[in-house]
Amino acid sequence: MTWTDLVARLFGTTHDVVADGDFLSGEALFDGQPLTVVGSTGHAPIGFAMALRQARVVLDTVARHPGRPILLLIDTQGQQLRRHDELLGINRAMAHLGCSIDLARRLGHRVIGLVYDQALSGGFITSGLIADACHALPDAEIRVMRIPAMARVTKLPEDLLTALSQTNPVFAPGVQNYVRMGGVRSVWGADGADGLPACLREALRDTPTTDERAADGRSRGGRRLAADVVEQVLAAD
């Protein structure tokens, strides 16, 4: 689904979301209440400039519209792999984006992520995975690393990793695997795109403000130990 189709299904004509290259931003009225929209399109790589532009929208919302909900529309191939961005400090720009989203959450903004096309690597980690909750459309593609790249990093054979991916969601891409691990809270529009407004309405109303991803991963059988480790660390403190 294109971003234009998505915002039309969510908001009808009551929005001014526009694309400036691969950068998306704007405002929408949802159930009579204003909502900030920010994100990317065109499988955009998240580089120094894109991260700062997204962070600026979030911080402007915090400064000018206290408590206003923020919807992150995610379509990214990951972080920008260019020397130019590395020299400018892409790591700090992406950390700034993540901290901006975290600040908005701490100040009472409901921040909802929605993967509507593609979500890969650092471009996803510093946006959707820092939101109060991240959701996805059924046909979205989510992964952190392809199996050949994973094999190079872990020094494990591709055949072994491929076999592991059949039974362990940690090694496998795909929306349903991220749902099992707790990284994606739910899939929107599985019963038809006409239900998307109801999904957004439910997310804005019912999403917890505490981080429940580890607990979700345990209850869904995708990450069996993460919640236990978190609880042990907290108990030790």
Describe it.
By secondary structure, the chain is an alpha/beta fold. It contains eleven helices and nine strands. The protein has helices at 3-11, 48-64, 83-88, 90-106, 121-125, 147-154, 158-165, 175-181, 196-206, 213-219, 226-236; strands at 18-20, 23-30, 33-40, 44-46, 70-79, 111-120, 133-136, 141-143, 186-187. Strands 1, 2, 3, 4, 5, 6, 7, 8 and 9 form a nine-stranded mixed beta sheet that branches. α2 (48-64) packs parallel to α4. The longest helix has 17 residues, at 48-64. It is globular. The termini are far apart.
Condensed summary:
With 237 residues, this protein is an alpha/beta fold.
Instruction: Give the SSE order as H and E letters.
Output: HEEEEHEHHEHEEHHHEHHH
The average pLDDT score comes to 89
- The CATH first-level class comes to Alpha Beta
Distance between the termini: 46 Å
Percent helix, as a range, is 40-55%
C-alpha Rg (nearest Å): 18 Å
* Number of self-contained structural domains: 1
Structural class assignment:
alpha/beta
CATH H level: which superfamily? 2-enoyl-CoA Hydratase, Chain A, domain 1
User: Number of DSSP helices?
Assistant: 11
